Amino acid sequence: MSYEVYKMKDFSTKKMPFKLLYVTRSEYDKGWHSTQHTHHFTELFYIVKGKGSFILPDHDIPVKENDLVIINPNVEHTEKSNHQDSLEYIALGIEGLSFSLPEEKDSQMGLYTYQGDRVDILFYLNKLLDEIQHNHDEYEVICQNIIEILIVKLRRGKKFTIEKTQPKNINKAVAFIKYYINQNYRDPITLDTLAKAGHINKYYLAHTFKKDIGISPIEYLNQVRIRESQILLETTNYNIAHIAEFIGFSSQSFFAQAFKRATGQTPSKYRKKAGKEVEGK
Fold first, then answer.
1. In CATH, what class is 169-281?
2. What is the pTM of this model?
3. Class of the CATH domain delimited by 19-164
């Protein structure tokens, strides 16, 4: 008979100062990209499969399966798949903390390849998804504990410094809806679509979103679409009808009206002016 006892050291635990805002698993086609955006919270991406890149204002960072990407608050970025592979990842929005490494003190974003057991980290991430999707009893408690386990594991392997950030007073549902819009703005989206995605009453969503963000969810959606259309007008030769369809507007005329309302110019005038500015540089 063998009998072994391992005694725990005396210790006190501190509750980590953060809040899990959302967990999502996303898969995108070849050549897909989101629009440039920022968050007041930290985002953590685990690349489940495929290849792509994260685009920052001054450079791109390629990513592949098993990479872990941490983007600290208020860093402008977008993510995209490459033209050969689709991109699948699990993303977490975590409010109240930021990450850094001692040798990267001033870095706003870190690309860290996870060196531990892939099965181990996927177990915890998939458990988070399962708990949130099915709303089991006290799932919030389990999710909070799983996140704490993940953070401890990351800190063990990479010696992260974790700093407390001042949380902005924003509702969890609103944070998720902003994220959902940034990822899916090309699709047909209504207030009902957003309410269903966020498992929230649409009237409460409309009220809370405007209270926290200052505009309605549909106004925010149109802002994202217009911002993306400006990039396409500046950098591609796509015709305006194609751009309107590509970014999710139901018609070219509706797109033109929304674009002029937002920028004071028609799409064609904006493209012409942008082209002249490029030529003059």
1. mainly alpha
2. 0.72
3. mainly beta
